[in-house]
Design a protein that fits this description.
Length: 348
Amino acid sequence: MIKVDVLVVGQGICGTFFSRELDRVGLSYLIIDDEQPSTASRAAAGLINPVTGRRMVKTWLIDELLPFVREAYGEWLRPVRVVDFFPTPQMRLAFVKRCEEGAEHLRLPRREEEHGWDELFRYELGYGVIEPCYLVDVQGLLRRARAELRGRGVLREERLMAEELTVRNDGVQYREMQARWVIFCDGVAGAREGYFTRLPFAPNKGEALIVEAPGLEKATDVFKRGISLAPWKDGLFWVGSSYEWEFDDPGPTAAFRERTEAVLRDWLRLPFRTMEHFAAVRPATLERRPFVGLHPGYPAVGILNGMGTKGCSLAPFFARQLAELLISGTAVRPDADVARFRRVLGRG
């Protein structure tokens, strides 16, 4: 029999940072993860943007998150600007108004910058700048973490078979493994099966392209005009993403590719070639707040999920909150604590 403190289900961005936090607080663990190439974590551009929405307001918790992610990501994080080309006169007016109001992180281009992108893009309505933003090499981080976890013998590369998991008030057993807790960091799978399916998940689908555009490969900024164009790797760029709340096909679609390539042809002055096309379903929530903590009916079962499109910024922060809950009983933020759904979850 193998005994550990925690069984962790999933090694996406949440599971990876949670394992780091378990190391920090001295809890032993095993991760169970059947690697899938199309998960939301592995398909993400990795952009952390401090403002959101058409009103360009601060992202939830961003003042607490930014110092945290700088420390958490280390070598996998680099500062970038978002060059936001205005797609409509209304969007330009809204951005200018927010700048006049003194909005943090937003500015209009300086005089010497105004025509700096003329050779690469068409942008009749100008642009604004959002800074500082950050770009995470999510794929590199997850690959390195997986190799390290495998090398330490704490990763089981298999799918969790739910029918073989036995849960008691004082712990869990899965095959030959016993643990005090099982924590589900399994992304959109958690909305389909398991102990937390009653939570108000709102999975949404995103598609993206990887493109090659000779002449653009040295650019280090993130560019935006409805869609985003972000540095990827090896001189390639990530282009996307869509946000589909209703979809029949979870995979890549011809409609998205055709629509996105048409936008690029209108926007880019450079030739480009699509190298890859992928899709993933994000574990978003109706409240746009994550699910973190222990099940109110099954105290040995926990969750770290529901990060939606903000996984890169939220996952390290809430991984620490969950680890502190396990080691010392420190409460998770009330607006993220899964206990707020006590009535919905019950014990059935």
